Amino acid sequence: MTVTFAEKLALMPRYRAGVPAGQAPEAIASGEIAQLASNESPFPPHPRVVEAIRNAAGAMNRYPDPGATLLRRRIAERYETEPARIAVGNGSCEILLAAAEALCEPGAEILYAWPSFSIYPHLAALTGAREIRVPLAAGEVHDLDAMAAEVTAATQLVLVCNPNNPTGTHLPATEIAAFCEQLPARVTVALDEAYVEFQTHDDPDATVDLLAEFPNLVVLRTFSKCYGLAGLRVGYAIGSARFRAAVDAVRQPFSVNALAQAAAAEAILHSDDVARRVEGTIVERIKVEEELRGMGLTTADTEANFSWIDLGEAGEADVVAGLAERSIAVRPGAPLGDPGHIRVTYGTAAENDRFLAALAELLDNCASSATKSLEDEANR
Fold this sequence. Notes:
By secondary structure, the chain is of the alpha/beta class. Helix content is 39%, strand content 15%. It folds into two domains: 19-39 and 271-378, Aspartate Aminotransferase, domain 1, CATH 3.90.1150; 47-267, 3-Layer(aba) Sandwich (Aspartate Aminotransferase, domain 2). The protein is built from 13 helices and 13 strands. The strands form three sheets. It has a seven-stranded mixed beta sheet, with helices on both faces. A four-stranded antiparallel beta sheet has the order 9-10-13-12, with helices on one face. The mean pLDDT is 93.
């Protein structure tokens, strides 16, 4: 007799990281590999953050603060709210998973756009809820009206990734407010804003201001992107005190380790550093997008730190493999829900130039191969 496991495991998709397991960190650090696959910051944390990590490292014989008291207080101060309304987690992914556990069970419905963040399909499989996927509208943006039309008496959780991953498209706060007005107050709306600092439509705090008007709204953010702390995994949510208590009730204790707490509590004090990172990223975004259009490629209208590129006639697998041969890592579109695309994160200026040159070479090779095939066919 063999061991049996829960049936939900067969329904749960396997999360695919942007970089193959075992890729040497030193190869990335040295620049041998241009890591443009995971939407990370190419820049290390602020020096004061590194110092905070170093100072905390000497106390690793003790458990971390289970309530993340200092971190939650500093986040609350940043947004002029109460610590009781702040949930922190091992990345915003943990908060999303915990929210699904706290809100959903068999018979409930979870609603989200697709393609969107690849963790979302895990939520229904984990809880036994039914997932409802709504295709993106023209321009690869959320179709909020279509999503609102899918809400039923069973809907418990609505997910809006804004800017959306993998397309990078963004909807302004006014549209999010209009969407929330259409939904029953009993439905939790999780506004997943991992990339919100990079968008130029609104002040990043515009959606946080909506919390006063919509008690069922939860805003999720992360330290992984513009703060440069992806390796420590710290995310947070701003919502009601009841939401925070529910999320905490279903998670293991000590989910955010002591080094992560120390780093994030220091990082949030350095808004000037965030502004510089964001400004540099936007400069690179403009450059990369212009170069891609010059190659005849179409991209979604990104407001994030990555481009979503329609490869047209070029084969996705061939392009991804060709870039990998040149030690450039990008994300293929097929696992993200839309074959024929790649998603590329903006790295340093040198890494972006390297990617653009390699992609141009590969597209030329594809064009030459296609021309030769047509000539061979004509000569038969």
